[in-house]
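Model it.
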Amino acid sequence: MPTKYGHVVGGALNLRELPSIAGNRLTLIPNETTLLVADYNEDWYATTYGDLSGYVLKRYVQLLNMGMDSVLTGSVIGNCLPLQPNASNRMGCLILIPNETLLEAVDYDAESDWYLTSYGGYAGYVMKQFVEILEPPPVTEWLFGQVTSSSLNVRKQPSLSAPLWNNTWPLNRIALVKPSLDGWYETLYRGEQAFVSARYIELLPDPVPDSLVERMMFIAEPELGRANSVYFNGYGGKWCHRFADWLAMHAGTPKERIPNTGNCGWGIVWFVRNQRFCFKNEKHKIRMVRAYPEIRSISAELSGDEKAYYPSPGNYVYFRWSNAQPAVNVSHVGIVRSAHENILTTFEGNVGQKVVSRTFQLDDDRIVGYGSPIFS
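Modeled.
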């Protein structure tokens, strides 16, 4: 789903780790702050504020009314360009944008001296006189590229002085890329636009299929054996769900079409609320319905469709281990790699602190159920 600009209204706004008022508060966003938001569900937007990513309640964000014809591409000229919190120079800047950085420049008012834009996790305003508007580049299809460096920086703009995303890419990682400025490829980092040096990318002859699931299966192979540090810099928690979401987004799935969470319980809740989850074990379904008020409206009994459901590649498969503590509702998640007769094969993160592929019987009573991302 597309991102939209909006203003915080009604006072300082909580940025929460999860889309719930029970989620940890990451920070307070000041009133009248401009945000770049994306729909998460009917009550919450996903957004960023500097280095923090989380969720804000929709009722405290007033969207700005802008047409698609006002969205331009520009390049910073002159020197470092201040990103201001409002359309004036009276307040301190949010962040400095390096020279030659490419920006989405929103011409929200032809009479104004300012463009609306975003950079480094912030949204704000830049002076038009320091942004050169560029002709739209021709549409280029995605290609598969493989990393040839042991540690490739992933940047937010095609410039060596541009800020980095949260991690570097390891040797042999496969990514979707397309040509950008000379010496750079455009790519994706967890669903966001990113850029990597073309010097350290080898283009592969394999055609990129339209199927997001086929892309996921192809991209996942060289990840086997990797540890969490190459996905999430500084993330110390259980990362099985983060890996599943990363794999889907790395293949080009918009982040709004998957749970995009570090919590397996909330992952199931997201799928249930979007009517895209099939429980395969009634005792697990009863446990989940009792534990989460957000899904108590559904029947605790298995439906006929759930009993008959056969998993497909790309499904999220959730488990509850036999030795789980009573307070644990779901233990782990993986991605379905294949299903044949009564055998399920997976890709999973955080198994022995690595990415692995394993097999299970389809009637394994540790399987809670299957979530289907929106791959259309």
